[in-house]
Design brief:
By secondary structure, the protein is of the alpha+beta class. It has a single domain, classed as Structural Genomics Hypothetical 15.5 Kd Protein In mrcA-pckA Intergenic Region, Chain A (Roll), CATH 3.10.290.10. The chain has helices at residues 4-7, 12-18, 25-33, 79-83, 114-124; strands at 10-11, 37-39, 42-43, 49-50, 55-60, 63-69, 86-88. The strands form 2 sheets. It has a 5-stranded antiparallel beta sheet with strand order 3-2-5-6-7. The protein has a two-stranded antiparallel ribbon with strand order 1-4. The protein is elongated and about 60 Å long. 21% of the residues are buried.
């Protein structure tokens, strides 16, 4: 039976943390358990292995990162070295003007009235 070093595979939560896509390994594992990580189009559990050539999709804070594994590493490394371990195919973030305008209510103004709610829905395009 081949070991992980021979096959070049590593746990997906460990790899995501090692290449600095998440701040902590527990955050990477939580993202996997919540279904925010996909490997080759399939939902990934934290212990699933990834190897060179695998596509990893990670959704964090409403932004999706699409990366292709080019090298597997186990330990967290500096940002320049981490950038060499994957090919980033993520779409560019939307321009600030394309983001929906979020209406702001004054603090302590209470619950919105029916009129306020209709205005909010009209602004959001619902």
């Amino acid at each position: 039976m081949a070991s992980d070093e021979e096959t070049g595979t590593v746990r997906v939560d460990s790899w995501i943390w090692s290449v600095r896509l998440t701040k902590t390994r527990s955050q990477a594992a939580t993202a996997c358990r919540a279904g925010h990580v996909r490997v080759n189009g399939e939902r990934a559990k934290p212990a699933q292995t990834v190897g060179p050539g695998d596509e990893v999709r990670l959704r964090l804070a409403g932004h999706e990162r699409i990366v292709v594994v080019s090298r597997t590493i186990r330990k967290r490394v500096g940002a320049p070295v981490a950038a060499e371990c994957y090919v980033d195919n993520s779409p560019p973030p939307p321009p600030p003007t394309a983001l929906a305008a979020v209406p702001v209510r004054d603090r302590g103004a209470g619950r919105p009235t029916k009129r306020d709610r209709r205005e909010l829905e009209r602004l959001q395009g619902l």
